[in-house]
Amino acid sequence: MASISSGSLTRVLYSYPCKAKIPKPLYSLLFKKSPVVGVASMSYDKELAAAKKAASLAARLCQKVQKALLQSDVQSKSDKSPVTVADYGSQAIVSFVLEREFPSDSESFSLVAEEDSGDLRKEDAQETLERITKLVNDTLSSDETYSVSPLSANDVLAAIDSGKSEGGSHGRHWVLDPIDGTKGFVRGDQYAIALALLDEGKVVLGVLACPNLPLSSIGSHDQHSSQYKVGCLFSAKVGAGTDMQSLDGSPPIKVHVSAIEDPEEASFFESFEAAHSMHDLSSSIAKKLGVKAPPVRIDSQAKYGALSRGDGAIYLRFPHKGYREKIWDHAAGYIVVTEAGGVVADAAGNALDFSRGRYLDLDTGIIVTNLKLMPSLLKAVTESLNEKASSSS
Ligand SMILES: Nc1ncnc2c1ncn2[C@@H]1O[C@H](COP(=O)(O)OS(=O)(=O)O)[C@@H](OP(=O)(O)O)[C@H]1O
Ligand SMILES: [Mg+2]
Ligand SMILES: [Mg+2]
Ligand SMILES: [Mg+2]
């Protein structure tokens, strides 16, 4: 993998007395050549700077809304999941900033994003649309580098609908979750603005803005305490590692995943919402591994951000049967963690494939940890899944 330096690869090789004992899919995940070889020589500096700017501005809009959240700001989509004025506003801001930063790419601009304007075009949504338009204009005018004339409601609808791309394995595609963890956002808890860029089907950069995540580790203290300064911006570029800085603009620092080798010392993250991930399965896996600490449950890709700086060592995600993972729920988090030295795999140990459109096609679940723990984690996952299958047959 591009993120694994030759030094860490050597250490992993030496940690196995016999390479043949490593499960086949995991072997290729840990040892295969960089999947981004063809694009690794590109710099993506301008794209990363634009992504950081877009996500930071969107975070400003979201923070404002979360502070004054009214019940009327929360609608239900056709799949019954919540969506707020901030989800729409964030998507409009990111779409607008990206298109403006790359005017020459307007013909080929492609954005795969979660929200669409369908519900906002309905007659009874006029007031909501006006509110979103005002939020977007207020946020853009708060940034001194954007001296733009105010956007109309139609401009906002068009910006939201730029996110309809199907993605795929050719060319470049931005991937956006304007608010990941909307349930957390509505509760006043963790959420993230997650933006990544795919080039020829590979994630080449990613940004996670986590307005409520403490700048210090959440592994060691109560994440809800108001004592700690919050607001993190994680950013990663292929081959360049992962940075973290405060959302109000402190200089970035390099972050790395936990180096823990003994599962007994590890702690693990999982979804806050039991409906999003099978907590009983995670607890059986953790038990098999010998993890002693209780799970840390937080919303959104803030989990990937926290993992990338070593707050915990493992992330387990096992959606209930039938759920299909979307690329915007993982693309930014994936590169933030892998560039910090971590490994992201599905439950069979295969690498995630972001090149197949809006969905990820994967086996059962997603597991994330460091290079040392992945083989034993995968073994525990396989055993727990087998036990679950035989108990339900
Ligand atoms: N049933 C089900 N199973 C699995 N995942 C689901 C499910 N329903 C929704 N989602 C997606 O989960 C996204 C929120 O991420 P998390 O699960 O990490 O956060 S949470 O702790 O559950 O809030 C959430 O992202 P947002 O919609 O962007 O908030 C969803 O895409
Ligand atoms: Mg949603
Ligand atoms: Mg999401
Ligand atoms: Mg979302």
Sequence-ordered SSE layout with sheet pairings:
Elements: H1 6-14, H2 24-31, H3 45-67, E1 74-76, E2 82-84, H4 85-101, E3 111-113, H5 126-141, H6 153-161, E4 172-180, H7 182-187, E5 192-199, E6 202-214, E7 230-237, E8 242-246, E9 253-255, E10 268-270, H8 279-289, E11 296-297, H9 302-308, E12 314-317, H10 331-339, E13 342-346, E14 366-370, H11 374-392
Parallel strand pairs: 3-4, 10-11, 10-12
Antiparallel strand pairs: 1-2, 4-5, 5-6, 6-7, 7-8, 8-9, 12-14, 13-14
The chain binds 3'-phosphate-adenosine-5'-phosphate sulfate and magnesium ion (3 copies).
One magnesium ion (MG) binds at residues 87, 114, 177-180, 182.
What does this protein look like?
- With 393 residues, the protein is an alpha+beta fold.
- The chain has 2 domains: 211 residues, 2-Layer Sandwich (Fructose-1,6-Bisphosphatase, Chain A, domain 1); 137 residues, D-Maltodextrin-Binding Protein, domain 2.
- It has 11 helices and 14 strands.
- A hairpin with a 5-residue loop joins β1 and β2.
- The N terminus is likely disordered.
- The structure holds 3'-phosphate-adenosine-5'-phosphate sulfate and magnesium ion (MG) (3 copies).
- The site of 3'-phosphate-adenosine-5'-phosphate sulfate has 21 residues, from β4 and α7.
- One of its GO terms (molecular function) is metal ion binding.
- Belongs to the inositol monophosphatase superfamily.
- Its cofactor is Mg(2+).
- This is 3'(2'),5'-bisphosphate nucleotidase.
- Pathway: Signal transduction; phosphatidylinositol signaling pathway.
